Amino acid sequence: MLETPPSMARRAAFLALLLLASSPLTAMADRPAGDVAEVVESDAVMALPDAPDDYGAERRGDVRWEFPAQAADVAHELQEVYEEHWSRLAEELGGDTEGPLTIRIGRNPEEMSALAPLGAPPPAYASGVAYPARGLILLTLAAPETWQRPDVDSVLVHELSHIALHRAVDGNPIPRWFSEGVAIHQAQEKSLERTRALWGGTVGGRLMPFERLERGFPSNPHAVNLAYAQSADFVRWLRARDSGERKFREVIRRLRDGQSFQTALERTYSITMTELEEQWHASLSERFQALPLLVGSGTLWVLAAFLIVLAYARRKHKDRAKMEEWDEEERTADAAAHALIAARSAAHTTAGPSPTMPEGEHEVLYVMPPEPRTSESGIPTVEHDGRSHTLH
Asked: Which SS3 state, helix, strand or coil, does residue 126 take?
């Protein structure tokens, strides 16, 4: 059956948007398929170690910034990013997000780990991590494995969203998929990998019920990509509906008042979660079903691959000068980090629990992972207090 010209126009418009999402302008720092959240059970929040001696500290409003003296220019740029986005995040959530915040910037992943609370370090692959209950964000200026500078602006906004949402709902429980979807959407991230995963899940009938995701994210890397893609797109779809922004803030208000997530969603939209999912599925089918008819799938992905390579080349050229500048600083940073880790190790054997969190509560970390692997192996685990914790 031939499509009518208006229908073809809609498909062409979608294709244009898809290619725009993968273009060097919007995907210069294309992010992984999503963040992961690790829950580390802890009787109390551990002590926060002091920053190295060569660190500076500045307080701007409610935010304390701690950073290497040589990276003061980067810290000041990130302060502007915070000023630009924090009020927007709070306004979109419609809740009270005020409170103290600490942002610590490490020169490399090892130093970032040394800046973490005792007993709750980020995974070795993290380029950013948020501790919402503590109002703490850690960033690194060199990404693990590649040692190139990550898109710290985007990472910061993403982690700020996690903290803002935690405060907007007054710390009440929310599904992991919803928190990740909100953060991806608020950070305005563009990811061809997520678009591709969502497309494949839709046309292949592999979309996962959100009820399943509430019990935990899958361990298969491809399924994890799809889980984050679904989370981000469902939040986008909710906010794009009629009165979407007002109803989205109403969901947050109901969560803040203590309603369960499902109750808050169903009372806001006056339909069941199952019906909401069915409507979202229908919208996905409308967007994706005819895309392969416009261009061959091989053509699309070859073009996308070319754009990604071009974006990588441009970013690598931009990063080279900065990395050369940091070569000397890294030697100093490594020595400082090793000293700080040694001090942490000694402190860990003597420090008692902090009274800032009641017994039985959990420390939740939202971590920026590396580029998703294409193998079928499981995602990483972290050992803590003799227990293995799966990262979703």
From this structure: coil
What pLDDT score does 50 carry? 95
Domains of the chain: 32-371 (3.40.30.160)
**Token pair of 235, please?**
């939040």
pLDDT tens-digit readout, 189-200? 888 888 999 999
Q: What is d(CA 80, CA 51) in angstroms, rounded to the nearest whole number?
A: 22
b/e for 278-290, b at 16 or more Cβ within 10 A? eebeeebeebbeb
Distances (CA, A) of 172 to 39, 116, 165, 254: 15, 24, 10, 10
Phi, psi of 40 (to 5 degrees): -105, 115
| Per-residue model confidence as pLDDT tens digits over 131-145 | 999 999 999 999 987
Q: What are the DSSP E strand ranges found in the chain?
A: 36-41, 55-60, 63-68, 101-106, 128-131, 136-140, 362-367, 381-384, 387-390
H or E segment to which residue 31 belongs = none
If phi over 0 gives left and psi between -120 and 50 gives alpha, with beta otherwise, what is residue 150? beta
Of 356, 367, 372, 375, the residue nearest 391 (C-alpha)? 367
Please give the Cα distance from 369 to 37 (Å, whole number). 10
- Maximum Cα interatomic distance, the chain, rounded to a whole number of Å: 74
Gap between the Cα atoms of 255 and 318, Å rounded: 43
- Start-end of H helices in 55-209: 72-93, 109-114, 152-168, 176-186, 192-203
Measured CA to CA, the distance from residue 387 to residue 381 in angstroms comes to 10
Q: Are strands 36-41 and 362-367 parallel, antiparallel or unpaired?
A: antiparallel
